[in-house]
Structure formats: C-alpha cells, structure tokens
Write a structure and sequence with these properties.
The protein is an alpha/beta fold and 389 residues long. It contains 13 helices and 14 strands. It is 42% helix and 15% strand. Bound molecules: pyridoxal-5'-phosphate (PLP). The site of pyridoxal-5'-phosphate has 12 residues, from α3.
Amino acid sequence: MSHRSGRHFLQIPGPTNVPDRVLRAIDAPTIDHRGPDFARLGLEVLEGLREVFQTSGPVVVYPSSGTGAWEAALVNTLQPGDRVLAFETGHFATLWQGMAERLGLDVRWVEGDWRHGVQPEAVQEALEADPSIAAVMVVHNETSTGVTSRIPEIRAAIDAAGSDALFLVDVISSLGSIDYRHEEWGVDVTVGGSQKGLMLPAGLGFNAVSPRAVEISKTSGSPRSYWDWAPILEANESGFWPYTSATNLLYGLREALAMLREEGLPTVFARHARHAEAARAAVEAWGLEVLAVDPRERSAVLTGVVVPEDVDADEVRRVILERFDMSLGAGLGKLKGRIFRIGHLGDFNDLMLAGTLCGVEMGLRIAGVPIEPGVPAALDVLEREPVLA
Ligand code: PLP
C-alpha cells in the first residue's frame, strides 16, 4: 500500500476521529490498577460519566464493546422467559432483539420500515394489551438509519399505559452528541459505548443504572458473572474494578470528559444539530433523499442518504474512498447498497463537514449519479453564527 498524504477522513458514524488530546492521554505509562493513583483516576471518570449520562446514579464501565454492555443490561435485570417489548427501527435494534432471544427472553417484536423511530403510541398500545411485559428496549439513535427516537415521549407512553416495565435504552451513538437525560427521562438502564460521541477508541461499554434496576438485579436477572453489576459497583466505591482495568482507555476517557466539559454539553449538542442541518441541506440540494422521514426524528449524528434505484451506494462509497481517502458508512442489513451514511459526530467542526460534503459531492458525480450542486446549501447553514438551542 502506498502512502497517502493528509489525514484520512473517517466519516463513518463511529468509531469516530480520536482527537489528538485523547490520543496523547492514552499514550502514557500504564499504572498499577490496584494502586492509589489508579483510585483517583477511577473515581474521577466515574464522576465525570454521570455528567454525560445526566444522572446522579452510578455508571458501570466494562472493558467491552457496546454489544457487551447490551448483554449486561439484559442479564442483570431480566431472566429467561421474561417478556420484553422491542422495535424494529433498524439493524442495531434487530441485533439487540436477536441477543435478547438468545438469552431466553420472550421478545414482542414490533416491525418497522427502518425509516421511523419508535412510535410512542405503539408503546402504549402494546403495554396496555400485555401487562406482563417486563421491559421496553429502545435504541435512541439508530446508527444504521440516522433516525432518533423520542425518549421522553416513550417514557410518557409507558407511564400512560400504567406499566411498571423497565425502560432500557441504547445510546451507543447518541451519548455525548444528542441531548440525553438518563435520570430525568426515567430510564432504568442506559447502554453506552466509548467509540462515538465520547471520541475514544472502541473498548469501553457503559450501563447507567437507576436505583430500581440495581434493586431488581440484586434478587433477579439471569445467571451471570463477568457482567454482574454488584461486584463492580462495590469495587467502584473506592475507584477500582474487580478485574484488570483498561487503564489507558480510562486515561483517554478522563481527557474526553474534560473536553466535553470545556465545550459544555449544550454547545456540543447544538454543534451536532447544526452540522446535521447543513448535511441535510446538501442532500436535499443534490436532489437525493434523507432516509429518516419524520423531521422530528432526523439524527444529529449521521445522515442516511438514499441513492437512486439504479445506483449501488457501495460503489459510490468505493469511489469516494479510492479517490478522496474518505470512509463513509455502508447501508447495513436490508439497506445494503441502497444508502450510504455520512457520520458527522464526535471531534468535528465546520470545515471538516464542508470537506466531507465536497468529497461526497465529487464522488457522486464521478460515480455517475445525476445530482445538482449541494455544498453551497450546506455552506449557507455553516455561515450562520452557531446558536444554542
Ligand atoms: N447499538 C448501536 C446503536 C450501535 O451503533 C452499535 C455499533 O455501532 C452497537 C449497538 C454495537 O456496539 P459495538 O459494535 O461497540 O459492540
């Protein structure tokens, strides 16, 4: 492989660009994971994570990918035979549902078209029809489609149905990018990962847990060992973990949390929303379609772009990678070849987005897709002063 000058444009919707500050923080000597310096690091990151999840309760951290944190959420709170309600919003919701089935849960699966989020009315209806449902599983931001479900409205629907089902929410691609409030929105287990809005490499999985979820896990749940919250929560009280910690990732996490705090979460959320607006402006001006149908559900972290019937989206991505050294997200599952996904999350700014959209526009043209110029429409959005929502 020959050298390519300049930085690769990693515009997939995660893992995201790891900022130099985080890379430098990770690049430090490993310390004793049972020593006093480590305890300070542990306590600091556990405290900082609460800010990002917007909770006063604990956040359990695993050396795992997000998939591990999904499993932890299920096995700590539910046992085989328990009925759960889940929604087909896209590829990741489907994967989580498959996991729930393999763990012996009885999944009520509400089919969807991969262009809409979870409908609060459907949640209420399903819970009213079946009061035995023990948990509701929702993917906040469906990374495969660019559709964001409205968590507070879903919470209200659970309440309106008079249900005491646990509320389990995946924020793997929204955490640190889209406003999300674990405590205020009454979520029992929030599942996160390190490699998207938190600007870290993959390798840390998170469960923010409500007091009720912790109580239930003490007497219930499935057989588990590694994923068990109890020994982790106990060790975390003094800043440790019950096994060897991913120390260098925690260094990176400390730095990433500092960066989010310095920018301020409201500014971070507004930045993502503004970039998404600019990306959509380009897509619409190109004459292409944004996959997310409902304007209330359009993701701030990625944009799914539908290509014309006779175009293979993977061919467009191939051209863009080859010519401009930029990676875009592929269509996953049943969207393979039908869409490509532009990631605009994490450590990202206006000119990075402008460059990204220029690369997409040139790539579409080279691939023979008939489009109108779209970048000027995005620049119009970017020329406006950023404002807080
Ligand atoms: N959930 C969502 C919404 C995701 O985007 C991903 C990965 O992209 C996952 C779950 C799975 O996480 P991981 O690949 O870190 O195991």
